Fold this protein.
Amino acid sequence: MGKRTAILTALLLVSGTGVALAAAEAEQLGKSNLRFKNLPQYQLYLKNSDDTKMTEFGGSVPHDKHDAVHPLPQGYKHAQPYLKNLWLGYPFSYEYKRARGHSYALDDVFHIDRVDRYSEKAGLPATCLNCKVVTIPDLVKEKGDAFWSSNFHDLRQTHNSKEHAIGCANCHDPENKMKLVITSIPLDEALKRQGKDWREASRDEMRSLVCAQCHVEYHFETKDHGVAAKPHFPWDLGMNPDQIYDYYANGQPKRDGFQGAFADWTHAVSKTPMVKAQHPEYEMYSDSVHAAAGVSCADCHMPRVKQSKNVTISSHQWTSPLKSEESMQAACLGCHTDKTPDWLRKRVEFHQTSVWKQLLIAQEKSVRAHEAVRQAAEFKGVNEKSLAEAREMLRKGQWFWDYVSAENSVGFHNPTKAMDTLASSQQYSDEATQLAIRATGYAIAPKLDLPIGQLVTPIMNHSRKLQQSQAHLDSHPWLKYLPKLPEADLVWDGNQRLR
Ligand code: HEC
Ligand code: HEC
Ligand code: HEC
Ligand code: HEC
């Protein structure tokens, strides 16, 4: 500890002495972000800690994504009130917040209620750090495949935000002139399965592939059919929602690391095996107008910025390009030379407003389908075959909704695909409701004939702590389906062990 502090202090004292660090210092710091602190990109990287600005639909102020009641920083005007209902029985229902800058990744995963901080066992494996830190390749080298399923909590005291949060070594090879590289093991393997090798990718492709290391959909392999808890990208049949859904419906041990239909969890109320989507930015973008025109993620999210009169570098503040006139000038106007920032922002918001409207409708139809399946399942003499078909359609409808919902651009990355996906979601969810009704010979139809707000109210408050209280579980008809958790106090807070 003393030695490391001394080295850091020494580094802080050598300011403006150029790029190269003494070999001994570099080795001590390994891939820590501090090793690169003399590069100008590092100064821009520090700006990722600015979490004060919002745009109409995006931005960096963290808030609960289901809360449309409270203003920032707790809630936001564009929120999805039914998120906790839709994920009931899955840790996502405890806490789900807006993303912010890369420098917060470690802090945020250490504090999220999805990881069980009330217990010695985190409930989620160390693999969750795959997209949060710079150390994964080294950890896998050291511990082998056992790393992925090891206890998340074990890494708390060895990782800190300043050195280890997503940083330079995730995308660059410091031993080779900071060349762009892929360090993500699951991306490397997903490309291999497609017969591709990122080492042969063009510079433009690399400017998106480095983001595809994390801004993608994934699942975890199982120990029976692969490596326990190892992340795996479900791209073998394609990247569109129907292709990924087919992949999840028909898993193959050799190819996918699971057999048969894959489920992230079973919904507590409808008892339906569900698939949760995670931020498929790369998949959404992959067949967009911008991708077709060869525009990369970095073109819009890492525009060139002036350092001095003759020097420009790539912005290393990854955030919404819509935050200011200047950021839009840099990110968009280089190509859209005949437009103004205001004109382009309005075009983006036009797409987002349309997508948002259909997203909320899709969400409500999914909630209705869960309620219909719940009622059908509890109906005496239900037709089990129709009920099973209803569950299949419910699972599919929610997956299609989540593909757009979990994607962070509110449809802008690919407006046509976002709308098509939401239309499909609505059709599948409606079909699920109809199948559930028919499974009861129309007996439950009158009970479902209510506006969604009266049929099922949004669950506004829910957390691991609340689930330790019977009074909370009695406060909403859907919460009654959850088991009461044993009473416990926090064991972990960030890097700190409390007990
Ligand atoms: C044509 C420009 C463009 C391209 C290409 C692009 N984006 Fe975006 N991105 C945007 C815009 C515009 C938004 C919406 C921001 C807002 O609503 O404030 C956005 C939003 C986002 C957000 C959410 C930001 C927030 O404020 O919440 C993420 C994350 C993101 N993009 C990642 C990516 C990734 C990864 C890629 C490549 C796979 C990509 N983007 C490609 C322009 C682009
Ligand atoms: C998420 C991936 C990613 C991370 C993390 C990242 N970079 Fe970059 N970096 C890029 C991309 C993309 C480029 C543009 C490369 C190109 O166009 O060939 C780039 C370019 C550079 C360049 C070349 C000059 C320039 O500005 O275009 C340097 C030097 C650099 N980065 C340093 C850093 C440092 C230092 C850090 C950590 C503070 C860092 N990068 C973190 C993706 C990343
Ligand atoms: C190692 C994983 C990783 C890589 C590589 C990565 N990201 Fe991220 N990105 C994340 C995580 C995790 C967050 C959310 C952090 C949080 O909220 O604490 C995030 C957040 C963002 C945001 C939201 C920031 C805000 O202000 O709201 C944008 C935009 C973004 N990333 C774009 C990109 C782009 C573009 C690339 C490629 C050049 C990229 N990211 C590469 C993991 C990654
Ligand atoms: C590297 C060049 C490039 C950059 C950077 C770029 N675009 Fe584009 N954009 C295009 C091309 C090419 C098209 C296809 C239509 C065309 O040729 O005008 C397009 C189309 C569009 C469209 C119309 C299509 C649609 O999806 O509605 C919008 C809106 C748009 N861009 C917004 C933006 C915004 C906002 C940014 C900055 C965040 C941006 N673009 C950055 C090249 C670019």
In short: The radius of gyration is 24 Å.
